[in-house]
Amino acid sequence: MANEQTKPGPDERLTMYRQAEVALREFFSASNYCLENCITQECSKIAFFIPIPGRLGCCTENCFDRIPDDDKSDQTMQTTKRFIELQKENATCQAHREGECDYHSETGCQIKRYLTPLCLGFICSHQREYLEKNYGIQYPKHMIGVSLKKIIQGDERQVDLNVWLAKLKQATARVKKGKENQDPKQEVITIIPST
Ligand code: SF4
Ligand code: SF4
Predict the structure, then answer these.
(1) Ligand nearest to C-alpha 96
(2) 1 pLDDT exceeds 70?
(3) Is residue 128 part of a domain?
């Protein structure tokens, strides 16, 4: 792990985070899984025992402020402060409704930039299984969120980020080809960020 002097500064961390965010959003948009299989359906895929309305997806509580706070270094505190400012720009916070995130609206999440690692990196087990079965893409359960946290804390190097961004790009291209156009002999793409 790098020491404070050699870690990327706040601006660089924020730029890296956006690189990851843009790539992840493009990847999720390619399959449109959430919209087609959850948000437009009667029940959310995240529901286990108690049904959750599909329109809520997995935005059933406030996760917009779940920003890692275990690193109290100056650079990380500065990064986090700016992260929160950027996150709130052009995002509309709703009046609180029980069982729903304050940034969730009828048109989905109002935060278009700097979603927290939890919100940005998470997909449910149904979607992970769908990606693996239909496209041969393994999306690790926690590792994307861990790596996004590392970016904020200056522990992810650009060179390592580039490796998993390249895998995401490859995976996005595969999904964009469509389910019916997959090569049955293609290799599995495992999006494993550096650890
Ligand atoms: S990740 Fe799963 S639970 Fe969340 S919105 Fe998408 S399909 Fe629904
Ligand atoms: S911030 Fe957005 S993605 Fe995260 S829980 Fe709230 S509405 Fe959902």
Answers:
(1) 2
(2) no
(3) yes
Kindly state whether residue 1 falls inside one of the protein's structural domains.
no
Euclidean distance between CA atoms 72 and 78, whole angstroms:
10
| Segments forming the whole domain that contains residue 184 | 10-190
Confidence of residue 2 (pLDDT cuts 50, 70, 90): low
Residue 192: band (very low, low, confident or very high) from pLDDT cuts 50, 70, 90: confident
Q: From ligand 2's centre to the CA of 101, what distance in Å?
A: 6
* Model confidence at 195: pLDDT above 60: no
Domain assignment of residue 2, yes or no: no
Kindly state the tokens that stand for 28: 């999720």
Q: Within 10 Å of residue 181's Cβ, how many Cβ atoms?
A: 8
Residue of minimum CA distance from atom 8 in ligand 2? 59
Q: Ligand 1 centroid to 104 CA: how many Å?
A: 14
**161 three-class SS:** helix
Mutate-to-test residue for ligand 2 from 111, 113, 114, highest number of ligand atoms within 8 A of CB? 111
What is the atom index within ligand 2 of the atom nearest the CA of 103?
7
Q: Phi and psi dihedrals of 98, rounded to 5?
A: -55, 135
**Scanning the structure block, which residue is given the tokens 């970016």?**
151
Instruction: Say if CB 2 and CB 157 are below 8 A apart.
Output: yes
Q: Is 57 in the pocket of ligand 1 (CB under 6 A)?
A: yes
Q: How many domains does the chain have?
A: 1
